[in-house]
Amino acid sequence: METVYEFDLPKGYLDSAGEIHKHGKMRLATAGDEITATRDPRVLSNPSYLTIVLLSKVITELEGLGSVTPANIERMFTADLAFLQDMYQRINDIEIPQMNVVCPQCGHQHTVPINFTREG
């Protein structure tokens, strides 16, 4: 079973020296990752910060950085954050929400996945 996945950020993390870092690795999340992230004081005061803390735990490598911290994730471009959120969902087999829709042209009803992180 694969537990670590490589990725290339669409834009890249821009560090304080002006260098771009694109290539990295993300591991599967554990129950402990999610539990400790929900207890983080930043998450307790702002639940939307959960994504930032979780990603900083599961991103094991970003080329040229010694470690990945929540501060690094905060400074990423939104396209890269969306990419990483989508990757986290895919590799951890988190079910993507679905919605029942009706085709405006033919009236056919069907279910489509809702992907909040990219078009398509």
Q: Rg from C-alpha positions?
A: 17 Å
How much helix, percentage-wise, in residues? 25-40%
Task: Count structural domains.
Answer: 1
- The class by helix and strand makeup works out as alpha+beta
- What is the count of β-strands? 5
% residues in beta strands: 25-35%
Silhouette: globular
Please list the strands of the largest sheet in the order they lie side by side. Answer: 1-2-3
Terminal Cα span: 29 Å
What is the residue-mean pLDDT, rounded to a whole number? 89
What low-confidence regions span 5 or more consecutive residues with pLDDT below 50? Answer: 116-120
Largest sheet: 3 strands, antiparallel
Counting DSSP H or I runs of 4 or more residues, the number of helices is 5
What order do the SSEs take from the amino end to the carboxyl end, as H and E?
A: EEHHHEHHEE
